[in-house]
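$ ./design --mode recover --in tokens.txt
reading tokens...
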């Protein structure tokens, strides 16, 4: 058996920089990766999906320019779109490989599992180390629908290998992936059907977020089938046929399954090192420590909010903790975004979440149709909402639905990190005419509904 100073299992968003940093300090670090280097984000998550959406939204916006009096004929070169996506993906992937190599990390390209205390084995190597970090992420959770397993369905894993635009796309799941990739292919020309088992899309968000998005999707002829399950999947002559629980049948040349994630722990044999799992996820404390001393877990596999910036921040915090700094995983403000059009930018608590915690909370909402910039630019669907604690006046959360709100929500992230009050935002003088100008306007709603809140409105 070999020994090392540190083992990292999985080359996700946290594992790669951690392995590289430790190796640069002169430690002997081994990283195991069973698939391509760089994990989900780079290879089959954020990077390819956002490069793909750049093309899709360019097409969508060009069509919508009709509203501005600009008439265009959109012609999509799908192979060129996907080639660009794969080129970006590949360049990021090569960057990961170079980073690990330059830092002196020993990379073992194989699946790792525990065979003893802090002892990790793959095909032909067994290594023990005093420090082991699990960063194995998640994979698609595939529902047990009769017939599905025998068909060449797509998940986010193989979606970006598509060579031809499917004339008709069927999507199971109305969450992040189904909506982003579903709207994306629709904007590039596929007739798109999204099958949702509940009565709304993006069902973890406030209901008016779901309604706003659903209306936007339906306006661009995306078919959303609510409150139905898929009972049967068949594949014949390159065509998928879905039989729905209401008896309806839908056909398409591509089927995307986007029904959530499952943690990559099935083959990890975590128990061999005394590591407990909870519903398949690695159980950690507030310092990322598992139930085995010296073994830590970061990112999606530790049931952290499943976003790249969270896994990456886990790495920064774990590194500080390993250097005996007083950091935890929970003392941070987290935001996220959904890259549909309109976008959803979120941070902190919703009104309902705050009230459930017993906080004396209040929310104000400003529709996009009352924002000068949104009217001028023709993006007047959506709203900005802020939640505050009425006892302390501190900002507790925000929901922004509209044009590029993933950018704007950072104003709230910083204000909340600084524990600012809504009065600070209200007193800020933002530039006219911008979307950002609407944020002090939003805060001004706490002063009274009928006051003028910004120039021209
Ligand atoms: C389509 C899609 C789009 C997304 N878009 C965004 C976005 O826009 N913004 C955002 O913040 N987040 C986004 N996410 C989420 C984001 O990709 C993940 O939250 C992030 O990659 C988490 O990374 P991680 O570090 O936990 O692990 P991962 O990046 O998942 O990496 C885990 C690695 O471990 C490897 N592995 C697993 N088991 C083993 C084993 N036993 N031995 C060796 N190696 C193993 C895997 O092969 C994988 O490479 C998206 C996800 C998807 C699927
Ligand atoms: N913009 C981003 O940051 C981004 C983008 C994509 C993915 N992600 C991350 O990846 C995660 C996974 O995305 P996802 O879209 O797979 O999951 P999700 O949890 O967002 O959505 C899955 C949806 O599928 C539904 N569903 C589950 N089983 C079903 C079934 N049998 N039939 C029909 N519907 C079913 C669920 O009700 C849910 O609405 C996200 O939660 C997010 O953390 C982030």
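writing sequence...
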């Amino acid at each position: 058996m070999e020994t090392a100073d540190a083992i990292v299992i999985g080359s996700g968003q946290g594992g790669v920089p951690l392995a590289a940093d430790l190796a640069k300090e002169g430690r002997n670090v081994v990283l195991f990766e069973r698939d391509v280097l760089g994990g989900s984000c780079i290879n089959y998550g954020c990077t390819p999906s956002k490069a793909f959406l750049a093309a899709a939204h360019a097409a969508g916006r060009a069509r919508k320019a009709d509203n501005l009096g600009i008439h265009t004929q959109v012609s999509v070169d799908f192979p060129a779109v996907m080639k660009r996506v794969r080129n970006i993906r590949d360049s990021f992937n090569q960057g990961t490989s170079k980073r690990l190599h330059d830092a002196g990390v020993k990379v073992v390209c194989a699946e790792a599992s525990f065979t003893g205390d802090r002892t990790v084995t793959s095909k032909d190597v067994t290594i023990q180390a005093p420090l082991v970090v699990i960063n194995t992420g998640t994979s698609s959770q595939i529902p047990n629908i009769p017939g599905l397993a025998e068909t060449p369905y797509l998940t986010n894993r193989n979606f970006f290998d598509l060579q031809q635009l499917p004339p008709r796309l069927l999507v199971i799941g109305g969450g992040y992936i189904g909506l982003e990739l579903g709207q994306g292919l629709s904007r590039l020309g596929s007739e798109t059907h999204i099958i949702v088992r509940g009565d709304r899309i993006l069902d973890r968000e406030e209901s008016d977020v779901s309604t706003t998005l659903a209306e936007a999707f339906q306006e661009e002829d995306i078919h959303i089938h609510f409150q139905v399950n898929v009972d049967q999947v068949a594949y014949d002559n390159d065509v998928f046929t879905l039989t729905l629980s209401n008896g309806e049948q839908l056909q398409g040349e591509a089927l995307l399954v986007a029904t959530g994630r499952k943690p990559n722990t099935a083959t990890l044999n975590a128990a061999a090192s005394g590591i407990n799992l909870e519903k398949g996820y690695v159980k950690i404390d507030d310092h990322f420590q598992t139930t085995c001393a010296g073994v830590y877990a970061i990112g999606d596999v530790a049931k952290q909010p499943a976003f790249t910036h969270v896994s990456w921040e886990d790495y920064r915090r774990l590194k500080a903790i390993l250097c005996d700094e007083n950091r935890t995983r929970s003392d941070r403000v987290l935001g996220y975004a959904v890259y549909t059009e309109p976008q959803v930018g979120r941070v902190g608590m919703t009104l309902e979440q705050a009230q459930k915690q017993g906080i004396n909370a209040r929310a104000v909402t400003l529709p996009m149709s009352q924002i000068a910039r949104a009217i001028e630019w023709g993006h007047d669907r959506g709203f900005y909402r802020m939640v505050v604690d009425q006892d302390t006046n501190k900002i507790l959360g925000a929901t922004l639905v509209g044009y590029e709100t993933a950018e704007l929500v950072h104003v709230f992230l910083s204000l909340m990190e600084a524990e600012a009050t809504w009065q600070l935002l209200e007193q800020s003088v933002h530039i006219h005419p911008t979307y950002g100008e609407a944020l002090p306007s939003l805060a001004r709603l706490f002063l009274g509904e009928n006051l003028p809140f910004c120039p021209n409105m």
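exit 0
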